[in-house]
Amino acid sequence: MTENFNVNEASKDKQLEQYRADDQGEKLTTNQGLRVSEDEHSLKAGVRGPTLMEDFHFREKMTHFDHERIPERVVHARGFAAHGHFELYESMAPFTKAKFLQEPGSKTPVFVRFSTVAGSRGSAETVRDVRGFATKFYTEEGNFDLVGNNIPVFFIQDAIKFPDLIHAVKPEPHNEMPQAASAHDTFWDFVANNQETAHMIMWHLSDRAIPRSFRMMEGFGVHTFRFVNEEGRAHFIKFHWKPVIGVHSLVWDEAQKISGNDPDFLRRDLWENIDKGNFPEYELGVQILPEEEEFKFDFDVLDPTKIWPEEIVPVKLIGKMTLNRNVDNVFAEIEQVAFHPGHVVPGIDFTNDPLLQGRLFSYTDTQLIRLGGPNFHELPINRPVCPFHNNQRDGYGRQTINVGQVSYHQNSLAGNTPSPANPEEGGYVHYEEKVEGRKVRARSESFNDFFSQAKLFYNSMSEAEKKHIIDAFSFELGKCKSKDVRQQVVEMFGNVDTEMATSVAKKIGVKPPSSTQVNVTMSSPALSQSNTKKSPETRKVGVIVGNGYNSGEVDKVLNALKAAKVQPEIIGEMQGMVESVDGSKLEIEQTFSTTNPVLYDGLYVVGGDAEQPEMFRQQVLYFIEETYKHYKTIGISSNWATVIDRFTNEEPGVVLAHDLPEFTNKFLDSIAEYRHWDRMGY
């Protein structure tokens, strides 16, 4: 059997503890431990003379600085992460022998990195893009990396086309523009000439591509994997992460404005909520399919551009992940973490998905160039919790001090250790799939339906979501300089929905499509965010307060918001305290110049006495207009309901404080609803 030891959050924290450095109160030294007497001036020949080569302290300090940066990831460069644990609901023993999926209630430490795909490290976070959702499980059998996205399908079917996709979506090489955006000619030229992208494009142009928070987006393994149990029986599976507080998104105008107001919006949201104890939670679900049912559907289960509709293959929730600790150092943990879909444990195996097969090569190759050599697994964030033993030696960044003279397998000098483990001892054995066929460069005919599931996705959207997709097409293609590319894309998506493509064509100045849409009437309600969980928990509400406010009303509302786990933030004209009519005070946390309405999920306008300066009133009206335009909740206190004549009667998402208990409940219900699409007659 494998070595017996306890794997939990504490064990991973203890392992990381030995690498943490707390320099508070310590004397300054060189990297060799030599105490430094002065760190302001380099060693010179006289106070106005040249610097001397013998200044080893200057050289060490400057050399380290010159080498502080490593190559950023080609994709997923802009990311953020957190620590946590995964707790199992029920045993998966009938399906897999993976030990971390055996004992209900068992906890496995995890590290999760969220990211955008196209932009560089310095790009904004609320751009329209796929989001990476990569989870490292530190299990007792080794690390298992579930390296996925917030969209369950991908642009291409074969990994050999991945460089072409990324070259197309990255900034165009002749002028290095635009950054972190797909609204340009080369990307849409690629789409029009690689029509397997159709399904992914529908997701990419939907609200899913501009999530409100990392805490409010789904994650998917994308590929079809295998579970293999102790008896060697295999099932096809797909992995799903379901956020406990539901799936919610930004609107496009809001997303663009947030990029300017706070380019760190999503990482700040994750960091602050963990810091406040609002721990993000995601339930892990699996779709399980017996191998004998591989060919029962009208799509290929190995095609990475296809979903298994949840109404056909239900998602079984098997556990919950909680993120409860922020990182100590962004570079050491977030930048140096190395994920790889090939990091699996016994009981989890691969399939012949051609995109997955290519990723199994590419990720190791990427880590070698980014992290300087083959020993990236020894960096603290990447080290497995369990021991590891092999005959690998040396190389850049080696930390292990190997002892003994033997570094090869099949030996007598060391008793042939380390020795292979048989399956009963936890040794990994690949699933014995029968494989035969001619060597060909080809694609299975079963992969050739590009439009049916794109139509299924569109059928599943609410009217508001459909309008957003049309608007997104119009924006993206409207940025393309080539009218021919625009026309090609419209023609392509006429195969998905003629009415949608015709609406887009009208907006971007090209001809309506001549193509005929596929005959698909099925929908999948699970795909629409209109059916997600809705709760006021962790919503951030801006509270605008001025001198002379009604503290009796405001205190009750603020207490009710906090009791519902809503996060109010007090906004005023200037830093300091504002005073109510009865002399009580509130501290201003943000001013009109340090914040913006797009950074909040709702607005509570308290105001103050009617004698507020005109500039104050103008700022309040600006906050109201922006919040209203983005379909979010607005609550207006009783003493300002008459001052603000923008609303004479309540309308969707606008709550006026006539009766306090009723106002509070209606305001919370409205915040939970989040967007009020019926303002525009959807």
UniProtKB/TrEMBL annotation:
Start and end residues of each stretch annotated as Disordered = 1-46, 512-537
Instruction: Name the enzyme group at the top EC level.
Output: oxidoreductase
Any idea what this protein is called? Catalase
Composition bias, Polar residues? 513-533
Cofactor(s) it depends on: heme
SMART domains in the record: Catalase
Q: Which Pfam families match?
A: Catalase (PF00199), Catalase-rel (PF06628), Catalase_C (PF18011)
Q: Name one GO molecular function term.
A: catalase activity
Which InterPro entries does this one have?
Answer: Catalase, Catalase_AS, Catalase_clade2, Catalase_clade2_helical, Catalase_core, Catalase_haem_BS, Catalase_immune_responsive, Catalase_large_C
| Basic and acidic residues bias: start-end ranges | 10-26
Keywords of the record: Heme, Hydrogen peroxide, Iron, Metal-binding, Oxidoreductase, Peroxidase
UniProt xrefs under CDD domains: catalase_clade_2 (cd08155), GATase1_catalase (cd03132)
Q: Which family does it belong to?
A: Belongs to the catalase family. HPII subfamily.
Q: What is the source species?
A: Chungangia koreensis
- What EC number(s) would the UniProt record show? 1.11.1.6
| Catalytic reaction equation(s) | 2 H2O2 = O2 + 2 H2O
What job does the chain carry out? Decomposes hydrogen peroxide into water and oxygen; serves to protect cells from the toxic effects of hydrogen peroxide.
Specify the Catalase core domain's residue ranges.
29-417
